[in-house]
Amino acid sequence: MESISKIKTSNGDIKTPALLPVCALTYGVWDVFIEEKVTPPWKLSEATLFSLEYVRNTKYEEKVINGFHKLFTDKKPIFVDSGGFQSMKKGIERDPIDVLRFQEKLQADIAATFDYPVPLNVKQSEYIKMLEKSIESANLALENKKRDEMLLYSCVHGFSEEEIDWYFSKLSDGFDGYAMGSLVPRKNDYKTLIDIIYKAKIHAHERGKPLHIFGVTGFPMLYALSYMGIETMDSWTYLVASIYKEYIHPQTLKRVRMRKTGKIPECDCFICKEFGMNDFLGATSVPQAYLAIHNLNIFLREMNLIKESISENNFDDLVNIKSKDNERIKKVCDYAKRHISNKNLQYRITEF
Prior knowledge:
8-stranded parallel beta barrel, 12 strands, TIM Barrel, two-stranded antiparallel ribbon, glycosyltransferase activity, 16 helices, tRNA_ribo_trans-like, 14% strand, alpha/beta, TGT-like_sf
């Protein structure tokens, strides 16, 4: 069942469940955010996730290499992933210890071990090798970690409950948490996602550690993951939608193509109180930043509603209300609810 907890870091607590916006230190819209021409994502959320590959070899690397937080006016927790997914796409092989040292130099509050995400249609023999490499990389990082203030999360992969059991059995004790990857290519198969994520949640809970989910946070999964007691999750959707000039509808939570509809619905977020559709449609980075922050506002508003409903013990009522405009929310949450009932697991961890 859902629960409220806190993850303690060197730059503050993360009250969970929490949504971490994915951010980068590249060009364009990120220059706008770093210069605070538009309110940046990290000012709005409790914590932020940065991809290591979007820090390395950028013009900002030198500014953050001895302390990520120096670049920002707000001191909030920063989760730095390993860049494994981007490395895979670029065909780059990284040394897990070099990645760890880079994360430590950045003074990340939370870091994920270097991993080998599994794409679709991989041969079984190659698939098992990739899982074994991710496990070896995680255990190696744990043995060589030097910075005590940095929480180290082991990445987790697997596509059946049995594989998740096997994966956790191979991980050393001592990780501060776990982070589940390789899910994005399978994001439309919500039943499999819920099955394996909940299995990983059971293992993390048994070890008294939080679980993070990479990259599958559309609104139905945002609700289902929160119901399952997942502590943190991340989303890049708010920004990707802005690239395509898509405005997240504050009521239906669906992406609206503004150029197609010729209008946007009413919204009371601080961006929409000041700007309108024409301000979002411009071709430069500032209009994109406005639109991205509107979209993020909707994600964070939903996360706040979820937290409030969990604390007041009326999460099911919220799901029923939301499902009137987005039926998929109830469909996905109902499956998660049945799944949890079958497992007969109740838990509430208050502090990590």
